[in-house]
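Quick one: co-fold with 6-hydroxyuridine-5'-phosphate.
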Amino acid sequence: VPLIVAFDEPVEAELAARLCGIVDGIKVGLPAVIRGGLEWAREVSRAAGSCEGLRILDLKLADIGHVMRLSVEPFIGYYDGFIAHSFVGGEGSLDELKSYLDHHGARLVLVASMSHPGSRDVYDRALDFIMEVIERVDPWGIVAPATRPSIIGRLRARFASKKILSPGVGAQGARPGYALRAGADYEIVGRAITGASDPLAAAKSIIEAQEEVVRGGVEEDG
Ligand code: BMP
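Sure, here it is.
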C-alpha cells in the first residue's frame, strides 16, 4: 500500500505497530522527537519493525555534513531513511551525509519541493538547480508536493527510478491518489490519520480512496 503515516506528535508504540500493519511505512517528525525524546523514537521504530515497512526519520536536515551526521547518528539502526533539504547542495554537506548513510546501510531522501503555497517562492523557481543537486547526490528518494502534481510530474520525468514521497494529502487539501497518479510512489498522511478518532479506520479509508483513483475510477483531476 503506497501510504506512509506521519507522526508529528508522540503516539503510543502500540498504535504505531497496528498502523504499520496496514500501511507501507511510518515517518517520524522533529516535533514528535522533541516531545517524545530519543527513547520514544527508538521504541516506535522497534514497534514498527515488526511490519517490514519503511521507517523514515524526518528531521528536515539542512546543515554542513558534519552536523547532519551528528544529527542522524543516534538513530542509525533504528530508521531506514533520513530526510534532508536539497537546497544546501552537495559538497561539504549532502555528499557527506550520503556517504555516511551509505556506509551504514541507510537511505537518504531529499526534499525537492514542499507542499505549502510559499514553496513556490524559492523551491519551485529553483527546481532546475534542485534537480542538479539531486542528480549529483543520488538519494534513494525525493519529497515532492501532493498539492502540486505538476512538480511531481517533472521530477518523475527526470528521475525514473527514484522513489517519490508526497505529503499534503488530507489536512493540506490534496486528495488521496492524485499524487500517485502524477508519478509518486508513496503518499504521506499525518493529521488525517493521527487526528482521527479511529486512526486505523481513517488509514483504511484513505487506502480505498487511493485505490479508486489509481484504478481510474475517479476521472476528475485532483
Ligand atoms: P499532515 O498530513 O498532517 O499535513 O502532515 C504532513 C507531513 O508531511 C508532516 O510530517 C510534514 O512535516 C511533512 N511534509 C509536508 O507536509 N510538506 C512537505 O513539503 C514536506 C514534508 O515532509
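If it helps, The mean pLDDT is 96.
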